[in-house]
């Protein structure tokens, strides 16, 4: 069966206004569609993998994102220089920036994304809350207007509450507040982070729903009013409100809950023009009741999980609907097959509160084989920059059911080897052995509650590490350049060997 | 039975017996530790006495030292303990977004000193020991590199 309605490529050249793994993901879609992919780069990324995989790359500016990947004039100029007809923004950076979407269309280019007005409306989480409420979709109790610097009136929402950036996403500008007296400090911190990440310090408050699962519905819309509802993803394994693991279908969603989630997602989508991939995010409480969180009218990091269970190429469809192609019936109601899980490989230290670890990736071995997909943005000997997101790669597995997918993920993680920087791989390997994860019984508090901050090193692992280091040192010592010294057999021999050593020295 | 003392994460550890290390990628230190009929993929980085071994995704600092290296290292540690002020350095590059202390402030070990934003995350820099801030070399808004002096404690 063919889902192709158009045989000609949607565009001749397309500029990808992003970096890292997502730029590479879009480059691959371009290649398959017969489009010439054009990359962009900052001065820090001249030799980056995404630059080397594209047909050409345009310089944007200095390493700082504000002067490169977030600079609207620099990106528009790059598109003009390269002769691109369309721009794909990826996720993050300018992907939800209404001014950017306007600038792209004003420049006579096609924006692979929604109209600017949609981004201005939905991108503002506060406005989105108001329209969801108007569409009859349940929202988390909280404010529907921006917070001032004064915390008055917040007490009635109830504690614990979450402060969130109106322009936010990815957990930045988000703070949990447990007591009224902590509101002022949390508000200042959330505002500062929001200002730095999004250039907009507007913050609102929601009551915390806990325990809760984070479940989202993937949508795809075209320019002809057709809407595909492509299943849900469960993204409840999070640290600092950022997702680490995503899977589809959600172990917490049965047919009845799924129909309610889809209905709410359709209602939200019905009030919005987006002709793009989009995601409606919900919190699901312990009783299976859902609350609208936000809608993203862009590609999500975790889109690959949906691609695996639907068999659809979401990035290709983003580009095809941007060019005006209608979604065929088979895309509107795809059969969902098996179970997919994604884990994010981040350059962060799970043994030190998931702090970002900078440095150089040395060894880089990714898993392979049946049902394994890796979308990576780095390779061996890549220097990591502190200016950019620490996401190294997304490891995805697909299998006939969830237990097989978990087994496959365990096997894939065992094949994964990353040197030079501490990553979260060890945490992920721990996770797949946790009975509650294996059973699908987890919520957004899983990491905070289960992962001990200073996870003790097991005796057996320590002994193996000792053996490996010793063997490596002995190999090195076997070369003439390094002199061998002798460890005394007993404490009494210390002085004697010391004197001998001193004489020899 | 070995000529070396081995410290894993600072603790003396006996190496697992009957192990063989096969190195597959010399440059990156990638290899396999063959142990009791199983194969454990490992990465061993570093040279001389200080190594980092990656097993099951965890980077484990391991010191493999001769008695002579041990004596030298202990002498160095003893000298450092008697030294005066300690310099607090940036452990990662980023932007200083907030400074919580001023010159003359007394701090306890573990107190938050300043906040560095790196990879879009805010990271607290904490006092390595108790003391008084005698010099502050950064202010909010400054970008710092790894190893940059932030402040000195006495």
What key attributes describe this structure?
heterodimer; A: 505 residues; alpha+beta; Rossmann fold; Dna Ligase, domain 1; D-amino Acid Aminotransferase, Chain A, domain 1; 4 domains; eight-stranded antiparallel β-sheet; five-stranded parallel β-sheet; disordered C terminus; B: 154 residues; mainly beta; OB fold (Dihydrolipoamide Acetyltransferase, E2P); 2 domains; seven-stranded antiparallel β-sheet; four-stranded antiparallel β-sheet; 1 helix; extended
List strands and helices in order, with pairings.
The complex is a heterodimer of chains A (505) and B (154).
Chain A: E1 13-16, H1 20-33, E2 36-42, H2 49-53, E3 56-61, H3 72-82, E4 86-88, H4 98-106, E5 110-111, H5 116-122, H6 125-134, E6 161-165, E7 175-177, H7 183-198, E8 203-207, E9 212-221, E10 227-239, E11 242-248, H8 255-270, E12 277-285, E13 290-296, H9 303-310, H10 314-322, H11 329-332, E14 339-346, E15 348-349, E16 355-356, E17 359-361, E18 364-365, E19 372-376, E20 382-384, E21 391-399, H12 402-415, E22 417-418, H13 425-431, H14 435-438, H15 446-450, H16 459-477, H17 494-504
Parallel strand pairs in A: 1-2, 1-4, 2-3, 4-5
Antiparallel strand pairs in A: 6-7, 6-8, 9-10, 9-12, 10-11, 11-14, 12-13, 14-21, 15-16, 17-20, 18-22, 19-21
Chain B: E1 5-8, E2 11-12, E3 19-25, E4 30-35, E5 38-45, E6 50-55, E7 58-65, H1 67-82, E8 86-89, E9 94-99, E10 106-107, E11 112-118, E12 121-126, E13 131-136, E14 143-144, E15 149-153
Antiparallel strand pairs in B: 1-2, 1-7, 3-4, 4-5, 5-6, 6-7, 8-15, 9-11, 9-14, 10-13, 11-12, 13-15
What's this, in brief?
Chain A has 505 residues and is of the alpha+beta class. Chain A has 17 helices and 22 strands.
